[in-house]
Amino acid sequence: MNKKVQLILNSLLTVIAAVGFSGAQECEKNNVKDCNKVYNSIDQSDGIITSPCYPSNYPNITVCKYEFIGRTNERIQLNFIDFSLTGNHTECYYSDTVEIFMFIKDKYQPVQLLCGLHQLPGPILSYNNKMQIEFRGIYGGKLENARGFKLEFAFIRHYGIKSGKQVDNKCDFIYNSNETKAGVINSPNFPGSYPINMECNYYFHGNDNETVEILFSYFDVEGVFPCYGDDVSSDSVEFSNYPSRDRKLKFYCGKVDHAFTLKSENKYFRVTFRSNDRLDGTGFRASYKFISPIKNETRTQYIEINIENSSRKLNISILLIFIGNFVFFKFC
Ligand SMILES: [Ca+2]
């Protein structure tokens, strides 16, 4: 390679490097300058938010606030798609963070601090129609090659419960045997934490003679037995064969490590989840099915009877025929 070609090549590499460098600088400059945003459900019902320069390393000393304002009855749900922040991964000390603020008693109050390089946070559901999150990228992504975050947000009315028929935008859901014989139910925002001050009803309506069976495969509701009192010291799940309280059935709370089943006595069943104004859990997930009575099933069984006295021995075979609740017999 002669000197002239070498010179041209070097100049070209310098230009390419300069363009790349200024591109990265440009990203940092633009994003940092303009990273506070307000999302209003009147303008958009959902969207995606990323940290500055995502998926490249975010710049250091970056603070972005995102505020969400929904209509009455709307809540904001966040689902993280990617989460990778520089810092200590326990307790969030010396870490870059995302902090969640809920609108409580007319002001934003911090409720949750997220950090870490590998752990994807669960979904987050606001307590009402307002929420704010704050990204603090103080150390910057370059230290640990952290990408920042990417999340989906949506203004919703279904509380993260996507089965059943919702009643009047309330946290009330109806499960009709005429529409579906089996399905799943879950607490609000499952598998993320449920919000405070919730009451959700799950009403099951079977056809005549049907009952409903509910199998809980996951249960983690904050509280201690008896789970319900006048001071509402616990969150709870109530079961009832009636619209009113069913004193035969206890309230459930705490963490249950094994699956368990509840069965209704008749075609109607109600499950009510309640959370109080402090602490939370991840709630529950269950599957349900409506069960029809056993039809006139037929089965048979042979029995043998030996009768013996001093004069003779008698061996009798009898065929029993079971049809539904009736039994017939026949000597053989
Ligand atoms: Ca609680």
TrEMBL record:
The keyword Disulfide bond applies. GO terms for cellular component: plasma membrane. PROSITE patterns: CUB (PS01180). CDD domains: CUB (cd00041). Residues 1-24 form the signal peptide. Residues 35-156, 171-291 form the CUB domain. It comes from the Eukaryota. The keyword ATP-binding does not apply. SUPFAM superfamilies: Spermadhesin, CUB domain. Pfam families: CUB (PF00431). Keywords: Disulfide bond, Signal. PANTHER family: CUBILIN. This is CUB domain-containing protein. It comes from Chironomus riparius.
